[in-house]
């Protein structure tokens, strides 16, 4: 008795969908970007508070400082396990403390539009960190809505306002996911910084962000460097203005 062979139907195999991997930057390269931003920030503040804003070169390079600081912060907040290790909370505490320390000098230098407003850049990074924690790291729609509310309210009271915070949040999403659309979103938000900066030099920092994953530098990290340097710079310039009143008008 012959048995009829049954046809063998091989299961259809599907290749796993290709997903983008998170953006990876060497720690030394990230440190180099931070020091470059600190250098340009120093030049920008000296130009504004000691030279009367007479150097267009220092002004233009100074517009790239916020995006670069935002990129460094975004990368650290997007590290795997950062929230579980309590990084967001520690960063928020440091930014609040040093932001408050910087405020008297910031106000003394006239870095405001009306009264206490806006708060200095450390509060911009603080709102970014708190919003990122609630939106990206906490579960539940209540946390997401609270993060959005914080973004809206906090963005009205800090330097560079909503465009800077939206840019930083988009950079976090890009670094976490590797999806280029988030980089484009960050670039789009940075475009609106032009209304704040009075030019579009902030966009010039984005090629550096794209280049960063492909550059490997070995630069040791100096802890608390940024937190301590910013208020020290403001107080030094404030003291210089008090010693030499002509610096107030350039």
Computed structural class: mainly alpha
Q: Which quaternary structure do these chains form? A: single chain
Radius of gyration: 23 Å
Q: How many independent structural domains?
A: 1
Number of helices: 11
Strand content: under 5%
Organism: Thiomonas arsenitoxydans (strain DSM 22701 / CIP 110005 / 3As)
Pfam families: TraX
InterPro entries: TraX
Keywords: Membrane, Plasmid, Transmembrane, Transmembrane helix
Can you walk through the features of this model?
With 250 residues, this protein is mainly α. The chain has one domain (31-241). 62% of the residues lie in helices and 0% in strands. It has eleven helices and no strands. It has helices at 27-49, 56-62, 65-77, 87-108, 121-137, 141-155, 161-177, 180-192, 194-197, 206-211, 225-243. Helix 3 packs parallel to helix 5, helix 5 runs antiparallel to helix 6 and helix 6 (141-155) packs antiparallel against helix 7 (161-177). It is globular, with a radius of gyration of 23 Å. The termini are far apart. The chain crosses the membrane at residues 49-74, 95-113, 119-136, 148-174, 180-203, 224-244. This is TrbP conjugal transfer protein,TraX protein. Keywords: Membrane, Plasmid, Transmembrane, Transmembrane helix. Pfam families: TraX.
What's the arrangement of secondary structure elements?
Blueprint: H1 27-49, H2 56-62, H3 65-77, H4 87-108, H5 121-137, H6 141-155, H7 161-177, H8 180-192, H9 194-197, H10 206-211, H11 225-243
Helix pairs in contact: 1-2, 1-3, 1-11, 3-5, 3-7, 4-5, 4-11, 5-6, 5-7, 6-7, 7-8
Features:
250 residues, mainly alpha
């Amino acid at each position: 008795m012959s048995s009829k062979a049954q046809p063998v139907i091989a299961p259809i195999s599907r290749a796993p969908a290709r997903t983008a991997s998170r953006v990876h930057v060497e720690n030394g390269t990230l440190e180099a970007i931070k020091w470059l931003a600190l250098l340009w920030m120093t030049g920008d503040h000296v130009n504004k508070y000691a030279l009367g804003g007479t150097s267009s070169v220092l002004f233009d390079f100074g517009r790239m400082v916020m995006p670069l600081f935002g990129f460094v912060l975004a990368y650290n907040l997007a590290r795997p396990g950062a929230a579980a290790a309590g990084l967001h909370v520690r960063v928020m505490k440091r930014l609040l403390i040093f932001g408050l320390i910087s405020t008297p000098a910031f106000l003394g230098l006239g870095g405001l539009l009306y009264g206490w407003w806006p708060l200095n850049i450390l509060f911009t990074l603080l709102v970014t960190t708190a919003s990122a924690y609630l939106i990206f790291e906490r579960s539940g729609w209540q946390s997401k809505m609270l993060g959005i509310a914080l973004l809206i309210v906090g963005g009205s009271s800090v330097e560079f306002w909503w465009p800077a915070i939206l840019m930083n949040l988009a950079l976090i999403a890009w670094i976490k996911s590797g999806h280029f659309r988030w980089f484009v979103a960050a670039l789009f938000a940075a475009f609106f910084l032009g209304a704040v900066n009075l030019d579009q030099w902030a966009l010039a920092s984005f090629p550096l962000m794209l280049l960063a994953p492909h550059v490997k530098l070995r630069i040791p990290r100096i802890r608390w460097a940024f937190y301590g340097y910013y208020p020290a710079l403001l107080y030094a310039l404030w003291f210089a203005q008090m010693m030499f009143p002509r610096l107030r008008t350039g």
